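Checklist before submission:
- one chain only
- standard amino acids only
- sequence pasted in full

Submission:
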Amino acid sequence: MEGKIKAIIKADLEAQAKVKEAELKIQNAIMAITKDKDAVHKEVFDRAQKFVADERKKLLDQLAQSEKEGQQHFTQALHDLEERFSANQAKWLDELYQRSIRFEADNE
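Returned file contents:
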């Protein structure tokens, strides 16, 4: 009988050791999964931040280019108007003078 009790105790101790070993494996697996999850989360977040930063830079560059082109168009339009005014200034002054003379002549 004593041998059977010792065998049961031995089997119980072995089972407890196996349970503890299984619990330790489960704990290690949970820690590894958590670590991997955190690493994946960090990688996804870093990629998203990089994507946002790259898109922001791209849009700011496009905006700067559009502003530059708009300024160039404005400068060119202003230059064209100044040239047109300079080219026609004498003609327009003469036309105003002639109309004024005709107006005075017609009203006398």
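Reviewer check: Residues 1 and 7 are 10 Å apart (CA to CA).
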